[in-house]
Design a protein that fits this description.
0% strand; 85% helix
Amino acid sequence: MVRAAADRAFAPARDFFTEIGELVLLTGRTIGSAVRAPYPYGNEFIGQFLFALQLCWFPLLISTVAFGFGAPGLQAANFLSLFGALDRLGGFFVLASIREFAPFVTAVVVAGVAGTAITADLGARKIREELDALQVLGVDPIKNLVVPRFLALMLVTGLFDIFALLFGIAGGIGAELLYQQPLGGFFGTLFANASTLELGASVLKCTLFGAIIAIVCCYKGMTATGGAAGVGRAVNEAVVISLLGVFAFNYVFTQTLLATNPSLQTIK
């Protein structure tokens, strides 16, 4: 009786670490399949890339402009105007948009739109036993289904980060114009604080966000059980776990970047 109670108490932790281990194994198998010949997934990769691009570009545009205009734009401008320092808004955007907001908004949109579609697609195939049929025919589902989605989501998320940066900064310009301020100070402090390292780190971080989202969503889709209701649960779990993974990785990545490059912490 005591052992049964202990098993029930520790079951969530055991399941959590089991899933983490399986995700790590799937990541290793995916990377190995991606670099090992043959490469039969070219058409699937292009199709998944265009699919994610078509689904995500408009929600990302709206989200980044809204976030850029609202949070780091109007809120920061309202605070800086108390000190007569609205020309410093551009420097703040380097910290807010390039380092945090643009990658986060991109990850949320990609996970909520493209990630859910991937999970639902693979989950439906799992429920219909199509994945088992592929294995019977000697077709590797990892190489033919997971790898193209993994690569496509990495590429599209990295490109979307630049897209999000541009429209996020456009939101900041809108906030500056709303306060009837010249844009010279905004761009002056923006370019004084922005650096190639900061931009490259933002794109790299966002690309790795795409890898995390792809692995989690593919895993949840390929392990879905319980019919249509099970696919729905897998979709919900995929989004939650993807965002938790993104937040955890972002903390580690940002702290490592700032610790190895202390100059990024100085605002010019």
